[in-house]
Amino acid sequence: MNAISNRKTPRQPLISVALLAVTCAVLAACGSSGSTRSAAPPSASSAPANGNAHTPAPNGSPLEGTWRTGNVTVADMTAALSRAGLQKWIQPFRAGAGLGHSNAFLLTIANGVWHQGWSKDGGPFADNDDGAYRIAGDTVIYHPQGPPLTYRWSVQGGTLRLTLLRDTGTYQGVPDEVYQRAFYTAAPFQRQK
Predict the structure, then answer these.
(1) Which of 27, 98, 150, 172 could in theory staple to 32 by disulfide, Cβ–Cβ 3.0 to 4.6 A?
(2) pLDDT class of 82 with cuts at 50, 70, 90
(3) What is the C-alpha separation between 128 and 5, in angstroms, rounded?
(4) Given a cut of 60, is residue 38 above it in pLDDT?
């Protein structure tokens, strides 16, 4: 426990108010939609149409910042699912995911908030995934509303690669692992400046 949390001074409530204000500002800046899983259809609110969200400076981890995929096709997602042995879920995923011919994903990981936007066929980025995260070495535990997800991450140069390690959720009868692998592991993310 640090010295600040042990002090009982009249200023302590101000620290709590300040932390609450910073948390609210971060959530507003990230465009938090309250979505529960990446498998859910995007909400009506959108990230910037150009996909160039503010890139926070890394705060102690190279994982933190704003990342974007290039064009991710249905074939790319299908290949990622096949590599993971999830062939039986490809058709239900394709039928229910609402995929575009070309898809791009914008991922912001900063200040304890994980936020992903999804653009279909060059359209604006719509909110797709939000929650808290915790980095532990080369793993990150992401907490959407539902079971936590665990990824192994690596950053080399300006490229982020995520490997799904644990996901026990489901969405409309399809294991959430299918959506997570398709949306987060089918293509690497590039750091945005």
Answers:
(1) 27
(2) very high
(3) 36
(4) no
Convert 149-184 to b/e letters by CB count within 10 Å (16 or more is b): bebebebeeeebebebeebebbbeebbbbbbbbbbb
- In this prediction, residues 145-170 reach a mean pLDDT of 93
DSSP state of 79: H
How far is Cα of residue 3 from the mean position of the Cα atoms in its chain? Answer: 33
- The answer to whether residues 153 and 161 touch, using CB atoms and an 8 Å cutoff, is yes
In DSSP terms, which residues pair with 113 in a beta bridge?
A: 110, 132
**Burial (CB count within 10 angstroms: exposed 0-12, middle 13-18, buried 19+), residue 6:** exposed
The pTM of this model reads 0.70
For residues 72, 105, 142, 108, the Cα torsion angle rounded to the nearest 10 degrees is 150
